[in-house]
Write a structure and sequence with these properties.
Oligomer: single chain
Low-confidence stretches: 1-6
Strand content: 15-25%
Shape: globular
Mean pLDDT: 91
Helix content: 25-40%
């Protein structure tokens, strides 16, 4: 019964968070990391993957800000999943009449998108809530729903040289090595080394580019902001 309880805790936390905005500075502007990714695609491929014929699936879409950006900027169609019904309600409101649809659901299990139907899949600070078996099933599903040459943009926490991550792993270890129990949400999160996440994705995709946030420490060497890593992976 642990798995449904974990899911319920996450749903309750995020519904409350999107209503009260207690912990996160929620924005309607697109993620800077997504904008970097789109600039990379334009630079390397023009509008081949960013156009009105392209579709994007956002795993953990939150208030829909990234889908709205892709629809407004490039005319893309999109689907957003989120475990929070409050987030999805906000996403629908923000999207207006744009060609975007949304589902309240977990990203664990079979994705509802058809085979080879998506040009881009976004996974931004989302799949680290899954355990190893669930993550690998998700990668397989992302590979299934992407068309040939489609892109998987993954952003997640980076363990390398992150003192916050090491403290969480030490003080609140989870069941899986490299995972901890989030002190506020009460669910397990996984934090990756660059080598680990690159190897996991390489079973399913070709990783073209890796972007890492800077190491954040103050003058006394104490931990600052959490580190993150973004990977531009393509279905070959």
């Amino acid at each position: 019964m642990a798995r449904p309880q974990r899911k319920g805790r996450g749903q309750n936390f995020w519904n409350k968070e999107y209503k009260q905005k207690s912990h996160l500075a929620l924005s309607t502007n697109p993620s800077e990391d997504l904008e970097k990714f789109t600039r990379y695609l334009e630079r390397e491929h023009g509008r081949a993957y960013l156009n009105p014929l392209a579709s994007v699936l956002d795993l953990g879409c939150g208030n829909g800000r990234n889908l709205v950006y892709l629809a407004n900027e490039f005319g893309m169609r999109g689907i957003g999943y989120d475990i929070s019904s409050e987030a999805i309600a906000q996403a629908k409101k923000l999207s207006g009449n744009l060609p975007l649809s949304y589902e309240v659901r977990s990203i664990a299990g079979v994705l509802s998108a058809p085979d080879a139907s998506q040009t881009v899949v976004l996974d931004m600070m989302t799949s680290h809530f899954l355990n190893k078996d669930e993550r690998h099933h998700l990668y397989s599903e992302v590979n299934r729903v992407l068309r040939q040459g489609g892109w998987y943009f993954l952003k997640t926490f980076l363990r390398d040289e992150d003192l916050h991550a090491e403290r969480l792993l030490r003080e609140s270890p989870g069941q899986e090595s490299g995972s901890y129990v989030h002190p506020e949400i009460g669910v397990e999160e996984h934090v990756f080394s660059e080598e680990e996440i690159t190897q996991e994705l390489s079973h399913y995709f070709f990783v073209h580019k890796v972007q890492k946030s800077h190491r954040h420490r103050d003058e006394q060497g104490r931990a600052g902001k959490r580190r993150s890593i973004s990977l531009y992976a393509q279905k070959s």
